């Protein structure tokens, strides 16, 4: 099975506001960057989208090291999704799960891969994570300019 590292990040200008996501896929010394944006979103949705799109880009089952600086994504996929799914996408208190559409997509695209999820402190001394952050932030700023919202 091919080994792939996917470094993800999401960014938002305001929360909610224009947002961007980025992921950097690496395998066997090769690298691919993916990036996108949305006119009105949240940082959590952009973090989830980065992970989803990184996994969607894989054409065959892989052994994936998925690195995120989002505790929301890491804890959600490792601890909460199985419980939420079995509860009909409801939290323990009965409230609906926020971003259920994206959690469901992330769960679905994860099924064919062997995934090792890893948290990396944002803005730490991890060059590739910092590059993913810069790409996502740039995408959010570009989207903010398109929708006429000042960059904060």
Protein traits:
152 residues; alpha/beta; Nucleotidyltransferase, domain 5; 5 strands; globular
List the helices and strands and how they pair.
Blueprint: E1 2-12, E2 17-27, E3 30-41, H1 43-56, E4 62-68, H2 71-86, H3 100-110, E5 114-119, H4 127-147
Parallel strand pairs: 1-4, 4-5
Antiparallel strand pairs: 1-2, 2-3
How would you describe this protein?
With 152 residues, the protein is α/β, with parallel strands linked by helices. It has a single domain (2-147), classed as 2-Layer Sandwich (Nucleotidyltransferase, domain 5), CATH 3.30.420. Helix content is 41%, strand content 31%. The chain has four helices and five strands. The protein has helices spanning 43-56, 71-86, 100-110, 127-147, and strands at residues 2-12, 17-27, 30-41, 62-68, 114-119. A five-stranded mixed beta sheet has the order 3-2-1-4-5. A hairpin with a 2-residue loop joins β2 and β3. α1 runs parallel beside α3 (100-110) and α2 packs across α3 (100-110). The termini are far apart. The model has no long low-confidence stretch (mean pLDDT 92).
What would you give as the CATH superfamily? Ribonuclease H-like superfamily/Ribonuclease H
- Total domains: 1
Output the CATH topology. Nucleotidyltransferase, domain 5
Q: What's the gyration radius in Å?
A: 15 Å
Low-pLDDT segments: none
Mean pLDDT, as a whole number? 92
Beta-sheet strand percentage?
25-35%
* Element string (H = helix, E = strand): EEEHEHHEH
Which CATH top level class fits? Alpha Beta
Total helical segments: 4
Question: Order of strands across the biggest sheet?
Answer: 3-2-1-4-5
The gross shape turns out to be: globular
Largest sheet: 5 strands, mixed
Say how many strands there are: 5
**What is the second-level CATH architecture?**
2-Layer Sandwich
């Amino acid at each position: 099975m091919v080994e792939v590292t996917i470094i993800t990040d999401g960014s938002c200008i305001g929360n909610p506001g224009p947002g961007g996501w980025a992921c950097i896929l690496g395998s066997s010394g090769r690298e691919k960057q993916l990036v996108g944006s949305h006119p009105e979103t949240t940082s959590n949705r952009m973090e989830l989208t980065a992970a989803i799109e990184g996994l969607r880009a894989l054409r065959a089952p892989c052994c994936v090291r998925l690195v995120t600086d989002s505790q929301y994504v890491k804890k959600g996929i490792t601890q909460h999704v199985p419980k939420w799914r079995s509860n009909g996408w409801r939290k323990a208190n009965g409230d609906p799960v926020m971003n259920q559409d994206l959690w469901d997509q992330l769960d679905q695209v994860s099924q064919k891969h062997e995934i090792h999820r890893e948290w990396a402190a944002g803005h730490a001394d991890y060059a590739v994570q910092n590059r993913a952050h810069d790409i996502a932030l740039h995408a959010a700023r570009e989207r903010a300019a398109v929708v006429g919202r000042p960059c904060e």
